[in-house]
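Before the break, one more example. Copy the sequence into your notebook; we will annotate it together after we see the structure.
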Amino acid sequence: MSREKRTAIFLVNGILLLIVVLWTIPTIGLFISSFRDRDDIRSSGWWTILPHYTWVYTGETLPLPQGQTRDAPITIEGVTATFDEWRVGVDTGQGERLVWIGTLRSGRLERYSQQWAANLDFTTENYEQVLSGKEFQIQSSDGTTTTVQGDDMTASFLNSLTVSIPATIIPIMIAAFAAYGFAWMSFPGRRILFIGIVALLVVPLQVALVPILRDYVQLELNGTFLGIWLAHAGFGLPLATYLLYNYISSLPKEILESAFIDGASHFTIFTGLVLPLSVPALASFAIFQFLWVWNDYFVALIFGGLNRQNQVLTQRIAEMVGSRGDDWHLLTAAAFISMLVPLIVFFSLQRYFVRGLMAGSVKG
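Here is what the structure looks like once it is written out:
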């Protein structure tokens, strides 16, 4: 291998590795933050779980100097600074820092020293509060206790599964039959129909929302799971048919001709030969369709409505952002819950992207 080729391979792999790292770091940060305490997530970044040199509270509390005013400098242990500077923290010059906690008249002085530390305080309370509807007691850093109602995302999680699974299976089944028909069957208008399907790929989703919603209202499908299934299936069919047609039409002609000679029907060939050989294409589209439906908010909001019983996970998280915009410990847990199923689906099916089921199907 020449030097130029090795350099090109190293450069390409290095760029790909950099892209993977840049895409993975936010996911790791989200995962770690979802297990951190609410006070920790507000006061420090998720990367503080790694060993780092920082100021650590030694547990020593000093008495406050008396007779001080807010405008006059305050001298403590030979160091003079304003009250605001003491509130932030002042270095004593001996590798220690004093921090004034509380008000000018009532508070405490805490001593900190620089040490190697790692914030490894993890908790599962964030997930318990997000998934459960019961009340939780939250204790703040100042010692006060607040009663908070849980968000109960379990129902929304199940609703997302109820929507995503049928909305993925339905278009795949219909598109697989259509793709086989366009690829291996002759019938009048086949070319025109296929051109029409390809043309539907460029039609914006928003154009069809109002007409479909009007029909749904007349058919009383609005606000039902069936309406959401049909909407996602309809919007996904053109792409599914086009992708599966390209794959099925490339299958070896000899296999199908041998089956026809043996007297097999189109349905037998489709179910016995085409579908098993088309698993990589089916799995690829299943990933795209499932991720799109699972992460969809717009279609679910339009056709599902505001009915809390049919609310999917994306709607529930959007509602949490509005009501709990400052509770990052809950939002990160909710976000990772929404990522969990797509990750499982992708890693379960991703091997079909690289595995060739066609290998060995034709021997010669």
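The CA atoms of residues 259 and 269 lie 7 Å apart. The longest helix spans residues 3-33. Try to locate both features in your own notes.
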